[in-house]
Amino acid sequence: MTLWLIVIVASLSCLALKLAGYLVPTSALDKPAPSRIANLLTVALLSALVAVQTLGSGAGLQFDARVPALAVAVALFALRVPFVIVVVLAAVTAALIRLSGWG
Amino acid sequence: MEKNWRLGVKTAVQSREDSAAIRAGLAVGFAAAAYGVSYGALAVAAGLDVWQTCVMSLLMFTGGSQFALIGVLATGGVAAGPTAIASAAILGIRNGIYGVRVAPIIGGPWWKKVAAAWVTIDETTAVATNQPTQRSQRIGFWTTAAATFVGWNLTSLVGALIGDALGDPRAWGLDAAAAAAFVGLLWPRLRQLQTIAVASAAAVVAIVLTPVLMPGLPVLVAGVVAVVVGAFNWFANSEPPLVPLEREGV
Questions:
Q1: Where are the domains of chain A?
Q2: Domain containing B58: what range?
Q3: Are B250 and A83 a contacting pair at CB < 8 A?
Q4: Does residue B9 form part of some domain?
Q5: Which residues between 211 and 240 in chain B have a beta carbon less than 8 angstroms from any beta carbon of chain A?
Q6: How much is the pTM?
Q7: How many other CB atoms are found less than 10 A from the CB of residue B193?
């Protein structure tokens, strides 16, 4: 299996999955339970992504500069600071902590 | 007279909604672009060439799957190809779930839906479903799609090209920026006890499973929390709105 084959097969698989979502009848979400589940799925997956992006390291966990950076981001979002500024300040926080030699 | 006044109010509200949707889309696109540099640099470090790195961003166009693929390749090499593809595809299932939600917002002819499906990802879905009206949802979706697609592909290329010069993207805190961006997408949804409970439990499930399962799977399994809580409607004081109306930051 060459790298190119891996790249193409994986890319087309992801594209096919996106298209599949548009083929499912929208009536599937008409009842309260399916729409509620779909809504909560977005929340669950976004939250899991936050967790894995913050603590994940390959197949393990790592507590590093991302954690204080995330705390800064959460505090700033709570203070209603705009998205872009929060993201930049989170990056700066992690970068400065790493510059100081930790994480 | 009163009719004109109401029309004026309606137009003012509509244009405010439109510009809020556009601002949200551009902001999310900007964040994704910062994340793209980190993807490009990491992809090259994992053994992909510049072309492969860019084809992934163009065709696959879903950050989680792209990171999962290069993550597995970085540790397992080409021999881990099937696992890498499976990880990317498993992480890509959520885009299909998003598609079911976004399809009614988009509407229109089949080619428009194909184009929309291509760019149906965390960012576009979150921005679209955070807008109050179908009009602003569509504006939010396509603005985010355009900003993210252009930004993501350009910075993937930039990241691949200057990866070596940049050194470790972690030194620039780009991994932390990615986590912060996801928090920004999640934040407006944490209004009801139910969503807070699901978000907390999903994060715990993902963390506990990360050392156990292959990359990509913990995030997907965390979705089971949503299915269970949603099916039994636990933690529901009152039926929450389908779409959070308030926006903060995003």
A1: 48-103
A2: 2-169
A3: yes
A4: yes
A5: 211, 214-215, 218-220, 222-223, 225-227, 229-231, 233, 239-240
A6: 0.67
A7: 14
